[in-house]
Amino acid sequence: KVIRSAILTTAYTFDLSGHPISNEQNVSATVFDMGSGHVNPSKVLNPGLVYDIEPDDYIPYLCGLGYSDKQVRMIVQRKVN
């Protein structure tokens, strides 16, 4: 999971000349064309920010924001306490 986060957060969306990456029609690519962007292997070794969190980690966060158990249950689709 940490490796995937490092790859996603260090990807780039511009080519070597500084222009946006193009799709097959030679127009600026969207996230649907390229996802997070192109992988930069050298930056993966020092990603800086890493999203090291599991979906269950959001439950206490939502409760801390003031959502009721019922509201959190609707979001996560399971019983919470």
Please describe the structure with a list of short key phrases separated by commas or semicolons:
81 residues, mainly alpha, 2 domains, elongated
Task: Please give a structural write-up.
The structure is a single chain. The protein has 2 domains: 50 residues, no CATH class; 29 residues, no CATH class. The radius of gyration is 18 Å and the shape is elongated. The model has no long low-confidence stretch (mean pLDDT 82). With 81 residues, the protein is mainly α. The longest helix is centred in the first third of the chain and has 8 residues. Helices cover 38% and strands 0% of the residues. The protein has 5 helices and no strands. Belongs to the peptidase S8 family. It is found in: Secreted. This is Actin.
